[in-house]
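Researcher: Here's the sequence for the chain we discussed earlier.
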Amino acid sequence: MKRILWLFAILSVCAFCFAADEQTQKDSKVTDRVQAAAEVLDEIQNTPDKGIPQGVLSSAECVAVVPSMLKGGFIFGAKYGRGLASCRTSKGWSAPAFFEVEGGSFGLQIGGQAVDLIMLIMNDNGMKSLLSSKFELGADASVAAGPVGRLAEGDTDWKMRAEVLTYSRARGVFAGITLNGAVVKQDKDSTREFYGHMVTFPASLKGEVDPPAGANPFLTTLAKWAKEAAK
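Model: Thanks. This is the structure I predict for it:
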């Protein structure tokens, strides 16, 4: 009987440790994504002649980054990625909202590679689409390839063309892309893992939730480049 009790106790401890380790791995994946998004933004903006123009970044209401979005197929194929977004509030940049992006026409690019994706929400209509927690680019929100480099700042046509501007970086090449038909929706699993409970898009992106310490790498990097762009 004692052996059975000891065995039960050992199994209970092992089960608890396994669950704790599994949760730690999940949390690590989310925080790794936050760090990766910060690095993507930092690396792109550290090459100003090929980065997002200051005039564009300073006008963006929200910034969303998908590090290493997976692509498959030749020109057309399956695409899937997980990222995070933050929006301007009266208190600074908001706590991150986690999302998934699936499908869509990804412009003329050969597949079979991972790309970094950046989306800039440029106006109130784009913001409303983002706050809905699920929308389709090109249908619910107009989308266009974003201009690249300092020379693009004089081209103000982008202000009238789209509610969302999109960029990609693949094999070291950063460029504006078309991304029609992609569906953006809330990543509920990552949200729960990061916050410890469910947080809606409006609650996080409107500044109703204080950003956890784990959000600092992305928010600090975003604030730095937004401040630089506003000069």
